[in-house]
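Hi there, hope your week has been kind to you so far. Please have a think about how the structure follows from the sequence. I've dropped the whole record in just underneath, so have a look:

_____
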Amino acid sequence: MDPLTMTDEMEVIDEATQYRRKIDHSLARFSAAHDDAAAEEAKRRERRERLTTRSMALFEQTRTALQRVVLLDKEEEEEPAEQSEQTRLQEKKQRHIERNIRIGRIALIVVAVLIFVGTGVAWGAVTWFDAKFTEVSALDENSSDIQNADAQANDENFLMVGSDSRDGASSEENVGDAANIPGARSDTVMVAHVPADRKRVVVVSFPRDLEIDRPDCNRWDPAKSQTTDEIVREQKIAKLNTAYAVGGPQCMTKVIQKITGLRINHFVGIDFNGFKEMVDAVHGVTVHNEKPIDDTTLGKVLTETGDVTISGDQALSYVRARHVIGDPTSDYGRIKRQQAFIGALLKKVMSSDVVLDPGKLSGFITAFAHATFGDNLGVQQMMTLAQSMRGLDPANINFLTVPTVGLPNKRGNEVLLQEKTKSLFDALRDNTPLPGNQPAGTAASAPPANADSRKSANTG
């Protein structure tokens, strides 16, 4: 066979030929991959061009329609003052009708453009926030501790936990650091109950030193925001904040459902350190302060009285302070301040000063996403709930504290008043008037002033 007609594949296969073939094959694969990538990029570019073309066409239609109105109005102004077949009154009436028709058409076009653009922006914002938000596993909506589950089918119950992790805390804050005080504590525990008819909101706070019967719980790893396979055995007498310290959101949900009988269907955790960024993002929050706040651990938290606008650093100390001189107990004074702060923060965020300021609103949403974590707490759920609560009278928002004896026992724990606690949560589950006909929009009364000398010894 003529050697000149032989292909490369029929050459004698030596090492050099094998090496050259490997190179040729690699180049061929690279070329094919390059061609595939180029084809895919061409498709993406084509899709972008189509979308841009449609957007420009829609914009051009709107611009053209607006031009028509201007030109038609100009033509009408240039028409002769006298017309043979119409009186001036008829002409004016006809012109008014035609103008209304044109305005209506333009309004429809403009609305279409806004919907086209706005839907994309809103969807992007929802996707962005949900991507930033940390999801954890916390809920057990089939728990045997839930009472009268059918009556709660359309209720919304939010378990809110303020976790006072020392991660990121500076020495100036006087709260310790993660090396000396590892993990996270539930320094704030609240349940926000929204009944099916959406006619009221009841927020019930629980003292962190509430004496509980803690069940078996899976160990919580705060660094990874997840539970582990390790089981922490039950403890018959424990403080409420230990439920979160050892078992995280799942364990806290178990305990609260057992106490309340409520079906907890939303969990939200907030790292106190995140309060600083949230408050600074909206340029401060105004709280009403009746007397100077001097804490034996944190120092002078707030010296001004009356309506005071506080910064992020002040807000962090304001919600953390639990050794304030003059507080009846370490827990109840702080609960009152935390309730006041959350109310003030919500009021500021919903004000036109923030809602109409893209910079402030974006900053707050970013800070909130970074500082919170939860279960069943996406943007879509929140938007649906907000829509259902439109028109709610602010006077029908109640801030309460779960009924306790008011004085810590010999173990330094707060003890529930069982009958009053049962009556309170029966009223929430059955959507009946609150015990004692307490006026809406008020907080539960503080414990006796002489409790000051018996503050809890737990300073964690």
